[in-house]
Design a protein that fits this description.
about 70 residues, alpha+beta, Macrophage Migration Inhibitory Factor, two-stranded parallel sheet, two-stranded antiparallel ribbon, 2 helices, elongated
């Protein structure tokens, strides 16, 4: 019973993209480990940019400093 937790920033990931992630992860676990997709759990958490940090900064601030 695999459990996969995907965390992404909340920047407009569509329902269709989430469906692709869930199917893709389930298919990968089936292909690589022989796991049954019917017992594979995939959870997608969307995290606000101010709750995600990189390099000691909130993601939006990090991006401003490292863009271009």
């Amino acid at each position: 019973m695999p459990y996969v937790n995907i965390k992404v920033t909340d920047e407009g990931v569509t329902k269709e993209q989430k469906a692709q992630l869930i199917k893709g992860v389930s298919d990968l676990l089936q292909d690589v480990l022989g796991k049954d997709p019917n017992t594979t759990y995939v959870v997608i958490d969307e995290i606000a940019l101010e709750n995600w940090g990189t390099g000691g900064l909130q993601t939006d601030e990090y991006r401003k400093l490292h863009s271009s």
